[in-house]
Design brief:
There is one protein chain. The chain is of the alpha/beta class. It is 37% helix and 12% strand. It contains 6 helices and 4 strands; from the N terminus they run αβαβααβαβα.
Length: 209
């Protein structure tokens, strides 16, 4: 199910989170009527969608449900302070620029100084234990590389099974470019294999496959 959540700047944070949370709770509540196994629901997203998915997983844990089977985070934006090294070493020349990213964050937050709130920057959550098994995809030429890698490491340290796959020659957004980039199709296949085979449960160090 793809959620048509409200978008910034017309609807700044936390509108997208509120819409995602409402949709997730609705899906879990009505899963039997939709012929969906309520114990096989996960969250997934890329880039800003990865941020929303990560926040929803934390909210579901803290609320005692819905129970999530997995979270799939594709080059997720998990620290909107944009302070980690890759935001500077890959600031220009790799499709997504630091300048554009900062503008997106500015639109999303609309002047709210909440970058340290875990519902904005899930990497800054006090604890990450109790989250579902996680697949994280990162790209080597991406300003968001370090935050995705750091999130994988923190999840693993908290005892969450993590499958982290780095595509070293790829840029932010590559997974939508399957018509031109074979790596995009490989990444989708990697995610599918992890979800279908339960191999994710065998990974606990965040080191990748």
């Amino acid at each position: 199910m793809a959620v048509d959540y409200r978008l910034a700047p017309e609807h700044p944070w936390p509108a997208a989170i509120e819409d995602g949370w409402a949709a997730l709770r609705w899906l879990a509540a009505y899963a039997p009527l939709l012929a969906i196994d309520p114990l096989a629901i996960g969250v997934a997203g890329d880039s800003a969608g990865g941020n929303i998915a990560a926040v929803l997983a934390l909210k579901a844990r803290d609320a005692g449900g819905p129970i999530l089977k997995t979270q799939v985070l594709i080059y997720p934006a998990v620290d909107l302070a944009a302070s980690l090294p890759s935001h500077f070493t890959r600031a220009d020349g790799y499709l997504l620029t630091r300048q554009a990213y900062v503008a997106y964050v500015r639109n999303y937050l609309a002047g709210q100084e909440v970058e340290g709130d875990w519902q904005v920057s899930p990497l800054r959550a006090d604890r990450l234990d109790g989250l579902p098994p996680t697949v994280i995809i990162t790209a080597g030429f991406d300003p968001l590389l370090d935050e995705g890698r750091a999130y994988a490491g923190r999840l693993a340290a908290a005892g969450v099974p993590v499958l982290h796959r780095l595509y070293p020659d790829m840029v932010h957004g590559f997974i939508t470019m399957g018509g031109r980039l074979p790596a995009a199709n490989r990444a989708i296949a990697d995610i599918g294999r992890a979800l279908a085979s339960y191999d994710i449960y065998a990974f606990s160090d965040g080191g990748g496959i």
